[in-house]
Amino acid sequence: MAAAAVAAVMGATVVAADAAAVNPRPDRNISSVDTRHYTTELCAETFQLSAKPSPAKEQQRLKSSFRLSGAQSTGLHVPPSGRSGFAEVADTPDSRAGRVKLRIGVPGAKHDGGKQRVITLKPGTNRIGDETGGMLYLTVEGNSSATTSVEFAGHFAKVPRFVLGETSGENFRTMLDNSDAPWVEYVSERVIVTVDRATALKYRDQDPVKLMRTYDAIVRIQDRVNDVGEEGGSLAPSPLRQHIVLDGQKRKGTARTANGYTAFGPAHAGVLLSSGKLSRGETAWDIWRELSRPRQLKPVSGDGLGEAMAGIYAVQVERDISGLPLSGPRGWHTRTLAKLREAKPTLESVRGAVMLDQLALAYGSKDFWRSVNRLILEEEFPKPQRAQDALIMKTSAIAGEDLREFFAKWGVFPGEELGKLFDAMKFPKPRVDPFTLGGERKVSIVPFGQ
Q1: I need a surface site. Which of 196, 226, 238, 431 has the fewest CB within 10 A?
Q2: How far apart are the C-alpha atoms of 1 and 154, rounded to whole Å?
């Protein structure tokens, strides 16, 4: 549908504040980012969509704890209104089957309408409107090789949007300076980063090219911990993206991962929007851990082990992104790893990182966890099986040694059935106790998850 035709139907209102007059619930609280007061324009934008596997199927294939996002960023924000514009959808097998979806709202951001609203787009003209307004994302789930075009026409806000490989840093900063839209988006091959505009402006001079390349590098490093990757991995990486949300209005908590997104609060803005700080363990350790959640393997992340398992992905980023050579199990310690090896670690997340990194030091810091996770991905566990049992069994199998005593020192204990299995397998005891690596310590034996 041409923009002129839309204008004839809708009139020529170009400021979203006027849309409050037709908002069915004008008294609804839209929080301090007032999406009713920003400039929209009459526009026509066309997107070509290719089907991607569903996040649920990818989660099952990769045995991950959380789902990635199949959403395609449009860079458009619909104002709060009962009528804003139209989506013209091509007649294709995917659209006829109801697989073309429009998702409205930034996931995890309450002031962008709360929970995402999902609309099935049919072939032909679809009217688009939303009471509270929100960012627009498109998804097509399936295995079709065909593409489906979707044209948006009407009054929308074009948010500043940086696409790695397409947008220059200079053009992005110009968009950022001239926009009053509530959100900003950065898009790369592996990641979407959505940031409230007020926060993005504070870091406008950061290089978005380096920033998004750093995010992609982190994701690829963490994928390799699971033996997933474009080159040499036993499994292909997911074609889905990780959606990172930096919400300047978020006040409760600092970070949260759920299916489809990872949300951070303003305390992390200085790291999330700076490629330099995002590359350094002393500033980015907690962020690396949180970014690993969609790659943590579910079979070994229950029973209180989730925080511990996040540590192996952060440690690998620390090692790979720093460029330090791998020179043996005792050969190097960055500041972050040295800090983790302080005596008497108390926080469960720190205890877990130290515990699991000791195994990497003992059995090969480069490949140990890659081998363990490959075994987890390739084998089906008997059902049900405790995560702690799975961890003890798989690490012992790769080490070729009985690691029950090592784990017991950290408060991870095998179940009765696993104990019988170990007794029958007769693994030898470790030649070198991994617990002594990185400095012997005394710890209070508190079972994980308690």
Answers
A1: 431
A2: 10
- Nearest CA to 13 among 72, 89, 85? 85
Q: How many residues does the chain have?
A: 450
> What's 148's domain CATH number?
2.60.120.1250
Domain that residue 193 falls in = 41-242
Q: What is the pLDDT of residue 331?
A: 34
Angle between helices 387-399 and 348-363 (to 10 degrees): 20
Does the residue 419 lie in any domain?
yes
Residue 183 three-state SS: strand
pLDDT in the model for residue 251: 64
The reply to whether 187 and 327 lie within a common domain is no
Quick one: 302 and 226 in the same domain?
no
Whether 98 and 232 map to the same domain: the answer is yes
Query: Cβ contacts of residue 116 below 8 Å, gap of 6+?
Result: 103, 104, 105, 107, 134, 137
Ranges of the chain whose pLDDT falls below 70: 1-37, 82-83, 113, 232, 250-253, 322-350, 365, 380-384, 438-450
Written as six digits, the tokens of 75 are: 């860079």
| b/e code 39-60 from CB counts within 10 Å (16+ = b) | bbebbbbebebebbbbbeebbe
CATH code, domain with 430? 1.10.390.30
Token look-up 């989730």 returns 306
Tell whether 444 is covered by a domain.
no
Q: How far apart are the first and last CA of the chain?
A: 59
- For residue 252, what pLDDT is reported? 63
* Residue closest to 376 by CA, chosen among 391, 354, 358, 359: 391
User: Three-state SS for 67?
Assistant: coil
| Residue 318: per-residue pLDDT | 83
Can you give the pLDDT at residue 405?
93
Together in a domain, 74 and 189: yes
